[in-house]
Structure formats: structure tokens, C-alpha cells
Fold Cytochrome P450.
Amino acid sequence: MRLYSAAPGAFREAKTNITYEDFTIPKGWKIFWAFIGTNKNPICFDEPESFDPSRFEGNNVHAPYCYIPFGAGPRSCPGKDYTRFVILTFIHNLVTKFKWDVMILDEKVSGALVPIPAEGVPIRLYKL
Ligand code: HEM
């Protein structure tokens, strides 16, 4: 979800004129808030390109709004808790009940706005 966000970002509307560095976003303009801007920013995450689940463990907290795959604020994703539960249950069963091999180790990720594995991530499952 950090390296390859399922959603690329979210839209917002500027409530006031916003000046950032040499740019001004006029009040009323639509803004696309790209999650990758913080997900892969070394200010937010050390070695941002590396897959390291332990960065989310224990007291390792990231700054607010650095990791927001489900958006943030009052219009954030209402399916967030359900999705986390489904993914956790799926991963738990996958790693505790099966041995599995990824069949294409260098599979490409295609897609434009949403990352899509080019071959659908085929895996070989062996029931434990
Ligand atoms: C991996 C799964 C999912 C991801 C990454 C995801 C991501 C997002 C994101 C980024 C937004 C925009 C939030 C914002 O503007 O701040 C959103 C909105 C929304 N999501 Fe999800 N979502 C997921 C699954 C689901 C599921 C399972 C449901 C429903 C059962 C759902 C229902 C919605 C709805 C209704 C909105 C619009 C909320 C609003 O505009 O007030 N999403 N989602």
C-alpha cells in the first residue's frame, strides 16, 4: 500500500489561495493530492524504495499525513477498516496455511493511475 498504492490519490478543492514556493493555487481550483508524493519521500520514510514492513511496527510512527492510502479527513475511505480486516485475514491464511511461490519474479507493473500487475501475479500454492 505504500510502495504501490491501490489508489493514486484524491481530489480536493482549494478553500483559499494557496502559495507554495513560486506557485499559487487560486481559491476554487481542484487539487489532486498524490499519495506517492509522501509514500516515496525520504523525508517521510527512510530508504523509501525498500520493502520493510518493520517500519510500521511498534513505536515506529510516521508523521501525520505521510501514509494515507485510504485518504484522510472527513471524506476518507469508509471501507478502510473492512479492507484492512479482509487483507489481514487473507494474508494470515496465506502465510499460515500454505507454502507459496511467486511464479514470475520479475513481473512488470502496468497500468496508469492504478498499478496493475501485468500477468495478474500467478502463484503456486502448496497446502501445509
Ligand atoms: C484497498 C482498498 C481500498 C482503497 C485503497 C481505497 C481508497 C480510497 C481512497 C483513497 C478514497 C478517497 C479518500 C479521500 O478523498 O480522502 C476512498 C473513498 C471511498 N471509498 Fe475506498 N478504498 C478501498 C476500499 C473500499 C471499500 C471496500 C469500500 C466499500 C465497501 C470503499 C468505499 C469508499 C467510498 C464510498 C469512498 C468515498 C467517500 C467519500 O467521498 O465520502 N472503499 N477510498
Notes: Residues 1-77 form one domain.
